[in-house]
Amino acid sequence: MVRNIHEATEFLQKRGFEKPEVGIILGTGLGQLIDKVSIDAEVSYNHIPNFPTATVEFHKGKLIYGSLGGKKVVVMQGRFHLYEGYTPRDVTFPVRVMHKLGVKHLLVSNAAGAINLNFKKGEIMLIDDHINLQGSSPLAFLGVEHLGERFVDLSAPYDTDLNRKIEKIASENKITLHKGVYASVLGPQLETRAEYRYLKIIGADAVGMSTVPEVIVANHLKLPVAAVSVLTDECDPDHLKPVNIADIIKQAGIAEPNMITLFTELIKQL
């Protein structure tokens, strides 16, 4: 793992990825932020040594380096998921590479379903805590102690200072921003009515299929992280309709400008 991280980092440095300050992971249907980045370099995932390759059709599969909000950033345009057949180590490998490149903060976005029925599709939820229901951990492998402490404390996995700043930005820009608990499931199937009821009972406000592995590794690296969910559907088990992927992507696009504002203004303050 150490060698693989070094090889990928060295490859990117030779292609101009020099001393980025902020890493950004873009979720499903959330690619408009790239239009706000002044791009210096970009590399397809399949050209980076030891990198996985995005297989989901609406994930682009590029690592982008440039400027946003007055800072140098590295942006993952397309992320990896366990449901694609990757291991937790594969999914989180880019976070370790971004950290090795020098990022000091990590910002994560995802598309999620609203379990809390007070939250509506097209709105945004700031993740305050999470529930890992993926049945695995990106830290459960031989030799993990060479990359950081094995038993990582997750009493506050999302950086409180970053979250406070995001809440203030939302208030100043009149953006509806909920705050809640994100449940991460394996997927790729969507949940049953009974599963939605279960998620509500155990305290989830939103559900998705990503984010938690990356956040765990960020904490392993002592990398401050903040994450937001763009709510793309409402998961009411008593009035559940068949999933419409096209509508989910549409809702992500509607809410994304607010997410871009939150991230851009936050980066200016870092």
From TrEMBL:
Q: Name one GO molecular function term.
A: purine-nucleoside phosphorylase activity
Q: What is its EC number?
A: 2.4.2.1
Q: Which InterPro entries match?
A: Nucleoside_phosphorylase_d, Pur_Nuc_Pase_Ino/Guo-sp, Purine_phosphorylase
Q: Where is the Nucleoside phosphorylase domain?
A: 22-268
Summarize the protein's role: The purine nucleoside phosphorylases catalyze the phosphorolytic breakdown of the N-glycosidic bond in the beta-(deoxy)ribonucleoside molecules, with the formation of the corresponding free purine bases and pentose-1-phosphate.
- The name this protein goes by in its record: Purine nucleoside phosphorylase
Going by the UniProt record, its keywords in alphabetical order are:
Glycosyltransferase, Transferase
So, what pathway does this thing act in? Answer: Purine metabolism; purine nucleoside salvage
Tell me which family the UniProt entry assigns to this protein. Answer: Belongs to the PNP/MTAP phosphorylase family.
GO CC field: cytoplasm
